Amino acid sequence: MAKRRILLKLSGEALMGSQGESLDPPFLRALAAEIREVWGLGVQVGVVIGGGNIFRGAYGASLGMERSSADQMGMLATVINSLGVQAALEGCGVPTRVLSAIPMSPIAEPFVQRDAVRHLEEGRVVIFAAGTGNPYFTTDTAASLRAAEIHADLLLKATKVDGVYDSDPKKNPDAKRFTSLTYDEVLRLGLGVMDLTAITLCRDNRIPLCVFSILERGCLTAILSGEPRGTTIGFGGVERS
Ligand code: UDP
């Protein structure tokens, strides 16, 4: 397995049930099984989960809330999701730790970079909760930041579509999927892969990214086994190894 350490980013919306429930237990179980598969192959796995299924700061701000408070609500939403994913992983026998960017000692360990790396090396899946801990950021940026901090070999962004398209495949039946892109192309073409801060952080720290469908069973393992899935974003031939 070429990738020794990965960071998996999942949006909060991915956890939602079909009737709008904030968490969907069958999906959580399926997700945990996917993670367990790659963890079982010896890959060190970090996870960042969004909070959009519960609360987004921009929504709170649109209601007239102070943006910083609204974003704190969003970050707390990611903690709820992190505990949900932790329960699912532990339910299938995977040891985990939740590390929170906002200290909350009865619930999670505080995020400390060295502790995160130690947990990964000791075989625990590390779930990074509460985003970056700062308002005005997203969990995509938190994922890029944590990927850099743990020296991840690959950042994997799980979505409900199987990669990056030149236009919205739900609206345009002729939309074309890219199999690979460079970070500069993503920026030049204005592709909405992740927000600009997140993309720039990955590019500047030379972290390759793969956007893939979490709904495709076995996709995570396939990618880590070197099979071409989703869209890979890199540097035009020079990748970290
Ligand atoms: N958030 C934040 N700082 C961070 C990460 C997240 O303030 O570093 C807040 C922000 O309000 C955001 C919410 O948490 O709207 C949920 O995160 P995000 O929108 O990235 O979740 P996703 O879309 O991935 O579910």
Automatic annotation (TrEMBL):
Chief place where the protein resides: cytoplasm
Classification via InterPro entries: AceGlu_kinase-like_sf, Asp/Glu/Uridylate_kinase, Uridylate_kinase, Uridylate_kinase_bac
Domain (Aspartate/glutamate/uridylate kinase): residue spans on this chain: 5-213
Regulation of its activity: Inhibited by UTP.
GO MF, one example: UMP kinase activity
Subcellular location: Cytoplasm
Pathway, per record: Pyrimidine metabolism; CTP biosynthesis via de novo pathway; UDP from UMP (UMPK route): step 1/1
Catalytic activity reported: UMP + ATP = UDP + ADP
Signal sequence interval, chain numbering: none
Role summary: Catalyzes the reversible phosphorylation of UMP to UDP.
Protein name: Uridylate kinase
Record organism: Candidatus Magnetaquiglobus chichijimensis
